[in-house]
Amino acid sequence: MKIDLGLVSKVAALASLELTDAERSAMAEQLTRIVDHFDALRDIPDELLAGEETPRAMPLRADAVDACLPVAVVEANAPEFAHGHFVVPRVVTRD
Amino acid sequence: MTTFSPAALLEGSFVALAEAVCSGRVTARAIAEESLARVAKAQRDFGAFLSTDPAATLREAEAVDRRVGAGERLSLAGVPLAVKDNINVAGRPSTAGSKILAGFVSADHATCVARLVDAGAVVVGKTNCDEFGMGSSNENSAYGPVRNPWDPARVPGGSSGGSAAAVAARAVPLSIGTDTGGSVRQPAALCGLVGWKPTYGRVSRYGLIAFASSFDQAGALTRSVEEGARAFAVMAGADPKDATSLTTPVPDVGAAAWARLDGKRIGLLAEAASAEGGLHEDVKASFEKAAETLRAAGATVTTVSVPRVPFAVPVYYLTATAEASSNLARFDGVRYGTRKGEGSLAALYRRTRSEGFGPEVKRRILLGTFALSSGYHDAYYGRAQKVRALLARDFAAAFRHVDAILCPTSPEPAFALGAKTGDPLAMYLADVFTVPPSLAGLPAVSVPSGFSRDGLPIGMQFIGPGDAEPLLFALARVLEDASGVLSRRAPGAVS
Asked: pTM to 2 decimals?
């Protein structure tokens, strides 16, 4: 299938990525070629695909509070940290 | 006469090295000093390492000497260990080969690292890799490519290319990497090494920087099968920090448990001959020779079909990228790593990710996001998941007729740097033989089977049903003995 510039832009927005025009063009061309190749999966008859989808069950753990990293260790890796919190741009405004 | 100089011990098996440290004939510190000097040369010549901390390495080696002095018998006493940079080592940087994690320092050890260190291994450096483990040539690192010690004009394979080059260059005898779709086995094959991925869940994923969680596994690269099996014995085991960790007993890969080959049924993968992208003539010849070697060793060798193998690359690159698009959403410039941009929070996310991720990571995030997106999910991600399950059933059916499957690890020996960088699809097809067992969660071992006419290593891969590691190591040793690889030194190896 054709992955056009509009579809690349839409997917990039979903993935929180900004692309330059050159990147967008290259991705459209490359992803079209890749997805065209992957369309070979359509050649497998549907009747063969019935049955269990997940090869193995995913175990669940108890929903319980566990030990976590010391704040100082977290702070050391944070781009911006103050008063025990990660600093981010203002997300709530008065108006 | 046995020599116990650090240089001589680093040229041999780490089994003998650990024994020499345990018996007091050499210190772990002296071994570490020699290894650190070689690491610097491997970095200079091949770009194999991203970071070292010599002072910490020497302190840790001295700690091993104290443990040995106190009477501890450590199976990896003083063994220099290189760790792929997407695996956490406490107090060391972990960039995963990405700019977006520049400056990140790991808070604790990955479980597999903790187990190796507890057994006496000494971390000497973090190795270069394709960014977030995404690549088959180690040309996707934000910090430059890695070169192959057998021919520096060629790639070492990927994504654990630095880990492979470090061992092939004889800077260390043991390295670990992550294997999502072949990232330990393929560089092992291209660098003349043994590389394995375990049965899914057998080695903890705790402390691995996630790429595709239903595939990611830690594995090891060594020069010999015996060393690979010893690393497996140390790294494998249940871990409460990884919900997917297996809690069943670890299969015994000790030498005494290695099965004789008489009566073992080996299936040559029928689909290997018609692999998309072609099979290099020298690899084909080595495959045929490997079959003869196994027959001569007493195995029954037949051909077996796993019919959906030709679909494995599309299935892998749709499902693994979908998982990556989710896993890599955490890199947003807020909690760790690089932060770029200003203005709104959404703008900060976009700018951080756009400047922090390299082209291949962006391509895979876009592909995975596309495969999961409304209107395309059923036709791509959903269908790929169904084919993945069908492929697992294909393998189960094949293992009713054979005990293990043999195929080349890579369709060609190491290719030239830059040969595939302009064609992502051609690069993906390099994984044609390594992704099938990854999709089915099966164990696989790559072992050197010989050399091309150009003198480049060729690797063969044994695939088995879950928990078949003892048989796979036994089979690998037969090919290792016949290949003569242990008597050959990469031309670029350091000393």
From this structure: 0.97
